[in-house]
């Protein structure tokens, strides 16, 4: 398996998927569950705290509706960040392997 295939396989398995994010947003969006799933812990926690009040629901319900339009872009952004990090990791690992090969001193 090539490096590119290995990267894409890891992204497919580990990156957030839009379908669960949409479902979380539809059913638990007012408390920010989809934001936790997408790795946006601070805004998810903020949305959870705000939603604890009745007045907060006036804010978090429209926030969740807007997020329905943003989920696709957030998932793409997370996949791209992961792709870049995996490329750096693979290059670093490859460089470490090639530089660790010791050359014999010539006499």
Descriptive report:
The chain is mainly alpha-helical and 107 residues long. The chain has one domain. The protein is 80% helix and 0% strand. The protein has helices spanning 3-14, 18-28, 33-37, 41-51, 54-100. It is elongated and about 80 Å long. The chain starts with a helix and ends in a 7-residue tail after the last helix.
Number of domains: 1
Low-confidence stretches are none
Rounded to an integer in angstroms, the radius of gyration calculated over CA atoms is: 21 Å
- The H/E string reads HHHHH
Structural class by helix and strand composition = mainly alpha
Largest sheet: none
What is the beta-strand fraction?
under 5%
Number of helices: 5
Query: What level of helicity do the residues show?
Result: over 70%
Described by the principal axes of the CA atoms, the overall outline is: elongated
Could you tell me the number of beta strands?
0
Question: Could you tell me the mean pLDDT?
Answer: 91
**What's the end-to-end separation, in Å?**
40 Å
């Amino acid at each position: 398996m090539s490096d590119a295939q290995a990267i894409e396989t890891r992204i497919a398995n580990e990156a957030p998927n839009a379908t669960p994010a949409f479902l979380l947003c539809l059913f638990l969006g007012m408390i920010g569950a989809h934001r936790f799933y997408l790795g946006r812990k601070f805004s998810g926690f903020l949305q959870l705290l705000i939603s604890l009040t009745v007045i907060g629901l006036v804010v978090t319900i429209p926030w969740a509706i807007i997020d329905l339009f943003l989920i696709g872009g957030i998932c793409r952004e997370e996949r791209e960040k992961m792709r870049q990090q995996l490329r750096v990791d693979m290059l670093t690992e490859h460089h470490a392997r090639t530089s660790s090969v010791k050359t014999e001193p010539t006499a």
